[in-house]
Amino acid sequence: MTAAAADRNTIRRDGSVFEFPVKAATKIFAGTMVAIDTVNNLAIPGKTATTLKSVGVCQAFTDNSTGVDGDIKVRLFRGPEAVFRMANSAAGDLIVLGDIGADCYMVDDSTVAKTSGTATRSIAGKIRDVDSGGVWVEF
Known about the structure:
The chain is mainly β. It has 2 domains: 17-77, no CATH class; 84-138, no CATH class. The chain has no helices and 12 strands. The chain has strands at 17-21, 26-28, 33-37, 42-45, 52-58, 62-64, 73-77, 84-88, 103-106, 111-113, 123-131, 134-138. The protein has a 5-stranded antiparallel beta sheet, with no helix packed on it. Strands 8-10-9-11-12 form a 5-stranded mixed beta barrel. A two-stranded antiparallel ribbon has the order 2-6.
């Protein structure tokens, strides 16, 4: 592609709503973390694994349990305009106020932890706050 020599109509979209193709035999529940599995480049629920890239929070229940890879898409929210409260891990992986600004890691589709679990977990997002209800994460 060459550099523009005249005005151009650059398409814009809201940076907080995205859709990604879902892996076959997969259900993703509303309000849970969504990840792209870099092995197959498809959306799945967040979980403990090292091959995942966190992409946001599922907007509505998405059921591809009877479909093939990419048959449907999951709609999700993400971005610095919104943060989402996830469950806090426990014991040595409990996130505290002093961890604000650090990365947190996916334990499952609803829980984040302070550490990578000895290099077994992928990054979920940035810790923005911690309260009695959980951890506020920016995806």
